[in-house]
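Lecture notes, unit on protein representations.

Consider one protein chain, 233 amino acids long.
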Amino acid sequence: KAMGFCIFNNIAIAAKHLLTGHQNQVKKVAIVDFDVHHGNGTQDLFYEDGNALFISIHQDSNYPINSGKESDVGVNEGAGSTINIPLPPGSGEGAYECAFSTIVTPALHRFQPDFILVSSGFDASFADPLSAMILSSQAFRFMASSLVEAARELCQGRIMCVHEGGYSESYVPFCGVAVIEAMLGVPMQECVQDPFLSEVEQWAGQGLQRHQCEVIDRVATLHNLKRPIFPPK
């Protein structure tokens, strides 16, 4: 059933193709979804599949409502292979960096995928009209760089990013090019300059907040992963 702006789930189709059409090379697939909306369709398709790790970092209860709860972890053979990180509205670079260092990267290393797929939505940016997050293009560059590095270490560099959400016509291009540059390994001095970056990075709230850290801590504890260091009160 189609929901939101999706008719076909491109990332799920790619994952199923890899697992069924390339069994000799790809036995396990990891999907990292940083679109601001929960990847409910992807979760449903792989909820019982232990050969697919699904990690969704999303704004809590943005869309769909009540989807992507911390307690949704998979069932049967897929128990533990669904990881939801529902970050509070207003989360910035600090919260996403903490989620990656505490949960995403350690979970990938524990799972040891043969291929990493990325649902690369840009609707968690500060300029997006359909969310309440405050990410800059640099945050998307960080996430892409982290995943590229994980792919090099774990699966011979096998990684694919699929552009999903992002509804700010003035800012999505800077987020998209940041991800492409990260995947290509373009040196920072040669990267396209984001004219909004210096302002948004100075916004109050970009650093990790305690209420955000509490969510990350609960998810890390639930999945037996490294617990975060709380910021001072």
